């Protein structure tokens, strides 16, 4: 069978962009994957397994050409709770179950339904996860151990500060400072990813100087890290809830990231249902091999686009580079100080709090939803926090419907009635009371600035207008009436 040269040409022309981009993404993903595994209380190499599987499987099967998938910071808190509750082997089975559910959701073509979730709830969820990560890793940075809950991490922070281990703290702070200032480094250095520069630089300093600090420990090689899923011993209700939680969070994050990535380039748009199938397949494979849950990651995806990637080949290739590194050089990971990765994770967590999204929430009147959801995620858990946020968002929407703005003004005999917002039958008590307060025989201007006026509200205004005319008054209607 003859080859079609028109299909080969785009692949060859894209590779000259995708290969360099894949190397950049590889350098970004390597330290992030290790840090996310540690923050998740999972085996360190589980992060690399997820990065390898995510790039290859989603890159081949997914529907978002330039999105890069792997272990995600947005799932660290959930995974840490699951590891504490079920153990690592059962957590792998939960990842497999979440992947199966994602595939079923993708096949049922409901992926776009995830976009109906209020964006303020999603951003607040990520902010809450970011705060939780920062609180956990602050203890590691200071030379201690993170506590079981955010509240204990918070109240235990002053004592941890007093007993801080100086050398580890210096290394962690150096990582944070490097990441903060890296965007302003001169042009030749700026091509090196900040996370890689920070971790490699600080690790080198810790080896050259007499720094006796805790370092990352591995239980064997990458092949030794391959783990078969385990079956839970009872508590199936909690297991099912965990599967649903991981599936929903991973799906929403992946789909919203795919939409965000589409805004960063002019290439083909994402097929969200296909992307969800690809994400689910990757989670099945990652969980079956002992890897972390997988989702689309905005940090790697942005690095991919900024490096000039043109197709999903870049995501696939970056996973091959991680695999090539992990097989012979995984032992090098044990040279990295724990405090250095803690500094990296603190920066990742803080960056999940996006000031622009907070400003948008304040401008749109959604700041209470943002704040309550964030605090609930931090001090309860992700599932309860999101559920509270969604209920609050629905309640606020209903309140805004009920609370259409209705105002009356007068200057002598002339009256003015202004109706703003959404005016429905639920606003009738206030609307009819405002109209009834206007004296008979007056000149009235009714300004309808409402976005929506239902039949009941329209009928109430029309009935009052006829009655006011009958008693000698004048009514002038301005707006949608």
TrEMBL record:
GO biological-process terms attached to the record: transmembrane transport
Predominant subcellular localization, coarse grouping: membrane
Keywords: Membrane, Transmembrane, Transmembrane helix
Compartment(s) where it occurs, according to its Swiss-Prot or TrEMBL record: Membrane
Annotated Pfam families: Sulfate_transp
Domain SLC26A/SulP transporter per the UniProt entry, residue ranges: 15-373
One Gene Ontology term, aspect cellular component: membrane
Highest taxon, organism lineage: Bacteria
Topology of the protein relative to the lipid bilayer: Multi-pass membrane protein
Membrane spanning residue stretches: 20-38, 45-66, 86-108, 120-142, 162-184, 196-216, 236-261, 282-303, 315-333, 340-361, 367-396
Coiled coil regions, renumbered to chain: none
InterPro entries: SLC26A/SulP_dom (IPR011547), SLC26A/SulP_fam (IPR001902)
PANTHER family: SULFATE TRANSPORTER
Protein name: Transporter
């Amino acid at each position: 069978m003859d080859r079609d040269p028109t299909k080969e040409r785009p692949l060859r022309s894209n590779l000259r962009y995708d290969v360099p981009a894949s190397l950049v993404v590889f350098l970004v993903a390597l330290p992030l994957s290790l840090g996310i595994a540690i923050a998740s209380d999972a085996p360190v190499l589980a992060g690399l397994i997820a990065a390898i599987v995510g790039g290859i499987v989603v890159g081949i099967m997914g529907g978002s050409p330039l999105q890069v998938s792997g272990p995600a910071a947005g799932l660290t808190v959930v995974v840490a709770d699951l590891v504490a509750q079920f153990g690592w082997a059962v957590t792998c089975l939960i990842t497999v179950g979440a992947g199966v559910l994602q595939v079923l959701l993708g096949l049922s073509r409901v992926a776009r339904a995830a976009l109906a979730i209020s964006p303020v709830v999603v951003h607040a969820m990520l902010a809450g996860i970011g705060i939780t990560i920062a609180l956990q890793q602050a203890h590691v940075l200071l030379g201690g151990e993170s506590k079981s809950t955010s509240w204990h991490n918070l109240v235990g922070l002053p004592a941890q500060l007093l007993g801080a281990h100086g050398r580890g703290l210096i290394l962690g702070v150096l990582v944070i400072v490097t990441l903060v200032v890296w965007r302003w480094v001169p042009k030749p250095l700026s091509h090196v990813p900040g996370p890689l520069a920070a971790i490699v630089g600080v690790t080198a300093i810790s080896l050259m100087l007499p720094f006796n600090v805790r370092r990352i420990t591995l239980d064997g090689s990458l092949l030794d890290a391959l783990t078969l899923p385990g079956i839970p011993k009872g508590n199936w209700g909690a297991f099912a809830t965990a599967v649903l939680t991981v599936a929903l969070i991973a799906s929403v994050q992946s789909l919203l990231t795919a939409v965000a990535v589409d805004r960063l380039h002019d290439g083909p748009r994402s097929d969200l249902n296909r992307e969800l199938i690809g994400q689910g397949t990757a989670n099945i494979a990652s969980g079956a091999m002992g890897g972390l849950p997988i989702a689309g990651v905005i940090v790697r995806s942005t690095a991919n686009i900024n490096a000039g990637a043109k197709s999903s080949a870049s995501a696939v290739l970056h996973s091959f580079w991680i695999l090539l590194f992990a097989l012979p050089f995984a032992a090098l990971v044990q040279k990295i100080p724990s405090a250095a990765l803690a500094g990296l994770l603190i920066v990742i967590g803080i960056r999940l709090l996006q000031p622009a999204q907070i400003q948008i929430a304040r401008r749109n009147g959604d700041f209470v939803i943002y704040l309550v959801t964030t605090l609930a995620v931090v001090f309860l858990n992700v599932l309860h926090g999101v559920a509270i946020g969604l209920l609050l968002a629905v309640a606020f929407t209903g309140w805004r419907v009920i609370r259409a703005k209705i105002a009356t003004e007068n200057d002598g005999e002339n009256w003015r009635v202004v109706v703003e917002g959404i005016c429905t039958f639920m606003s009738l008590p206030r609307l009819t009371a405002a109209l009834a307060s206007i004296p008979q025989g007056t000149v009235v201007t009714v300004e309808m600035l409402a976005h929506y006026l239902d039949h009941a509200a329209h009928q109430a205004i029309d009935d009052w207008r006829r009655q006011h005319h009958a008693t000698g008054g004048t009514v002038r209607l301005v707006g949608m009436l």
